Amino acid sequence: MTELVLRARRTTALIVLTSAGATPVVHTLSPPSATAATAFADAVNAALPVRDAVEPRTDGATLVTTEPVPPRTERKDRWTTSRERRVQWAFGALFALGTALATATGEWVLVLLWVTSYAPFLVGCALTHIVYRVTVDRWLLRRRGITVLAVHKNSDYVGEVLVKTHSFTDVTGEERTFHGGGRLVATDPERIEVTYDPCAPKRMTTRNGPVVRTLSVLAYVLLGLPVTAVTAAYPPVSLIVPLSAL
Predict the structure, then answer these.
(1) pLDDT tens digits for 21-37?
(2) 28 vs 13: CA distance, rounded Å
(3) What is the rounded distance in angstroms from the CA atom of residue 35 to the CA atom of residue 78?
(4) Are 84 and 224 in contact (CB under 8 A)?
(5) Would you say 231 and 128 are in contact if contact means Cβ atoms under 8 Å apart?
(6) Are 241 and 110 in contact (CB under 8 A)?
(7) What is the pLDDT of residues 74-116, one digit of tens each?
(8) Which end of the chain has fewer CB atoms surrounding its CB within 10 Å, N or C?
């Protein structure tokens, strides 16, 4: 049998397969925390049989097989799903509630204020949704993303904007396309680094230069997060005002 050794390093468990006269083969696991990695390594090492140092060992690395993560069925990108219809009904109900409360006060200034401010509130909700998606994408790509080299396929104008298309092959062998540019890592042909989620291959991003990354972080912190906070505070504050006037 090949000797199996697990070493916990941060949130990574290394499975080292060694044999006499053979180069060790290392497989990496990524548990959710350092505690889980250590517990997993300790449990497996404790279950391994004790062997004499001179006992011959065969190369068990050939017995190890790897399988790609099956792609997850993705939600349809349409405004006709039941969840999105519920969101539309919720926004409509909130507007009707606020209008009814403002009207009940008899203060038409409150009614006008509620009606005219609701459109900016919806815009804030749209921006909040973008901030939420960016946060989720960054978190998931950081935890389980796979980085590959994408090769430039073609370029085409969308209106007056030149959009580049790059292609790469995912872990299942399927060709994927990424629309957009990124920091060049090679030329002839042009290649960029793309990180994608194997569980949802349409979730992908490219590695940009330091200037673009800095501007993205500033937009996220200085614009995205404040808009999200104001949007979240708008419904309770706007409903408390007419309630206090009743």
Answers:
(1) 666 677 777 766 677 77
(2) 6
(3) 41
(4) no
(5) yes
(6) yes
(7) 555 554 567 778 888 999 999 999 899 888 888 888 889 889 9
(8) C
